[in-house]
Amino acid sequence: MKPTDAARARQAEKPARRRAERARRNASAPFFFGKQAIAFAAVCVVLLVLDLFLYIGIAIYENTQAFGYGSPKSVTRAVGEALVQESDGAYALPADEADWMDYEQCWGMLLSEQGDVLWSRNAPDAVLHPYELSEVAVFSRSGYLNDFPCFVWKRDDGLLVTGFPKDSYAMSVVSYLPQESLGHMPLYALLIFVIDAAVLYLVYMVSKRRVAKSIAPMIEALDELARGKPVHVQLKGSLRDVGESINAASAVMRRKDEARRRWVSGVSHDVRTPLAISMGHAERIAADEAAGDEARESARIIERQNARIRDLVSDLNIASKLEYDMQPVEARPARIAPLLRSIAADYANTYPEGPFAIEADVGDEARDAEALIDERLMDRALRNLIDNAVRHNESGCTVRLFADAHDGQLALGVADDGKGLDEALIARLNHEAEAIASSAVEEDEPAQGPVPPPHYDEYRAAAAAGALRTGPAASPCGEEPTLAPKDLVGLNEHGLGLSLVARIAAAHGGRVGFSSGPEGGFVATIAIPLRPFDTQRPAVVA
Amino acid sequence: MTDANLKSRRILVVDDEPELRRMVASMLSAEGFTHVTQAGNVKEALEAFRRVKPELALLDVMLPDGDGFTLCQYLRAFDPDAPLPVIFLTAKDETDDRLSGLRSGADDYVTKPFSPQELALRIAAVLRRCYPAEPETVELADCVLDLGNADVLRKDSDEHVSLTVKERALLEALARNAGRIVTTDALCEAVWGDSFGYEQSLMTHVRRVREKIEADPSHPRSLVTAKGIGYKLIAQKGPRA
């Protein structure tokens, strides 16, 4: 695939990836909510059973209250049973029952079959009169006699009526139900249960939706956090504390990243001065004709190694900045051709007598093409590619820096005609560069955000899809992918350099691809989006 | 200006690391610079400045008792009419530093670790730029260039050919970096003050210059092309050894 196609495909794949992610989440939703619904139904049944038991329990309790010892019914019954007609025809109540009546503040009277008062105790005058049959029927039915709650007890010799203080009891009219209605009772119970369940379900759904809505920002924030990006959420209500914890976690992460970046930058700063001293002395000995050949050769080796340390320190610093900095890329619109030529001139001046021939090849389309680039980073990327070519072809080769523009893409890079690499290794480099690029795809603004390190999940997913097995050497860590950061697996065997090139390309919203040259050698191409040609600038002819 | 002139300029090296200071100083001596003074902090630097009146200062950005940028502004304020040329030495390579350094008026900027040879070249370049030289003559394979008079003395015919203003500017930019490739962009910048859109014009001028300075313009020996990059002037004897 041409790098430009790759970049376009990557752009297209961004929303597709998001959609897939959302679909995956939604797909697991029915299962989750199915389980929820079953649990809900179970809760309803349990509630019903519980209600039933409660109802029965309450009924028994109330019954005991109403008819047990101390209830008006029991007083009435006790009096009714204890009241005896003595031989003289007079009625007598034993002392216990009499005391009880007093204690309950109740009065009593015994009515004959004809409605005459045969006996009474504590009864107010207003009730002491003969009763018609109809009157008896009314008060025994309504339960009130002259506003006194009253109870009756049937005796052989008449009807015992007891009255209790006004307002002490509320009498309910015992109604009647048709037999048919009783038969419908279970159906009614079911109906009530179904309606109750429906209402509960509605309440549950509404509250679930509300919860889902209120925790959505939280889940999003956690996702971002998992990707190593800083977040700030503002949750309302009871979730506010959770939101604040997430913000605190993000702040801690950010502080740690910052500390790491400072640490790396501090170390690389501190290494530079001793390195400068070492380089200075090595260069002096190498140039000193009075020194022996062997010493001068050693000095040249020290010089070269010092230069490697210098580049490594620089790479490390940039890698750490790309990884941990909030704004690692300071992209400005710039022409790529002058940058390319000045780097080429630098290297050509470094090797005036060979063995490396440095060329620059800027295509017509790319001559005035501008792109949004961070020149310092792009400079580093191109130099790393040249260093890579130089390091792997000690006996010398031609190194060609090229830039071309087509289809809104700027393709720039380095091609050499040296030893080249075998296809399996190239496939592996491409795969790892791809992983770095796609971990940057998830950023909204690839040129703004930090480039997170490749994640294990992605690595696993790639392994599962067989993407890692594109060549004999393409699965660098056997069947089980390693937890180690990818940098340490493949690209890094070629120095931090190539891995950094991949990150810099990703930070510019592009990617790097590796291939063999048409006549051997190694070609690295960085493809980044082109900035539309600025017509404001005057084109000068002759 | 001759080399001897250039190398007798007084140079002040300010860095808090004595080893580095000594290395730079001995390297400069080895390169032929005769007046090199060292200072380890701002205080020493100010004393040395009053004592030796340096003509160029190499300043470390971070000093124990202050920073190089402030020191730079201070030193330059002594003589606003002829501000002291300053090259910064720094262990930082952040863009901010570069901007802040150049804004405070630095003439160049070298990031540690540096190659001493590179540093010597930069010092020479800054000195040449800041202390305009006597008209220079550069001996090429087929002619002698007199840049001061915009004149070419051809060896084959002993004839004098004069240079246009732009041709002279072009050759001057190349002669200043004799033996090194200069990019087309840098040459356009030197001749027209802008690097955008002058590439065709540059090629035309190079062709005309070759007709004046080369015995066989189609096989140039002095003004050679670096494919795709720029041009290089190969001097037999010139402003640079």
TrEMBL record, chain A:
Residues 1-15 have a biased composition (Basic and acidic residues). This is histidine kinase. Its main location: membrane. Its EC number is 2.7.13.3. The lineage of its organism: Bacteria, Bacillati, Actinomycetota, Coriobacteriia, Eggerthellales. Residues 266-532 form the Histidine kinase domain. Keywords: ATP-binding, Cell membrane, Kinase, Membrane, Nucleotide-binding, Phosphoprotein, Transferase, Transmembrane, Transmembrane helix, Two-component regulatory system. Pfam families: HATPase_c, HisKA. GO terms for molecular function: ATP binding; phosphorelay sensor kinase activity. Gene3D superfamilies: 1.10.287.130, Histidine kinase-like ATPase, C-terminal domain (3.30.565.10). CDD domains: HATPase (cd00075), HisKA (cd00082). It is a multi-pass membrane protein. It is found in: Cell membrane. The chain crosses the membrane at residues 37-61, 185-204. SUPFAM superfamilies: ATPase domain of HSP90 chaperone/DNA topoisomerase II/histidine kinase, Homodimeric domain of signal transducing histidine kinase. Residues 1-20 are annotated as: Disordered. InterPro entries: 2C_sensor_his_kinase, HATPase_C_sf, HATPase_dom, His_kinase_dom, HisK_dim/P_dom, HisK_dim/P_sf, Sig_transdc_His_kin-like_C. GO terms for cellular component: plasma membrane. It catalyses: ATP + protein L-histidine = ADP + protein N-phospho-L-histidine.
Automatic annotation (TrEMBL), chain B:
Residues 10-127 form the Response regulatory domain. Keywords: DNA-binding, Phosphoprotein, Transcription, Transcription regulation, Two-component regulatory system. GO terms for molecular function: phosphorelay response regulator activity; transcription cis-regulatory region binding. It comes from Slackia faecicanis. This is DNA-binding response regulator. The lineage of its organism: Bacteria, Bacillati, Actinomycetota, Coriobacteriia, Eggerthellales. It comes from the Bacteria. One of its GO terms (biological process) is regulation of DNA-templated transcription. GO terms for cellular component: cytosol; protein-DNA complex. Residues 135-235 form the OmpR/PhoB-type domain. The modification 4-aspartylphosphate is found at residue 60. Residues 135-235 bind DNA. Gene3D superfamilies: 3.40.50.2300, 6.10.250.690, Winged helix-like DNA-binding domain superfamily/Winged helix DNA-binding domain. The keyword Transcription applies.
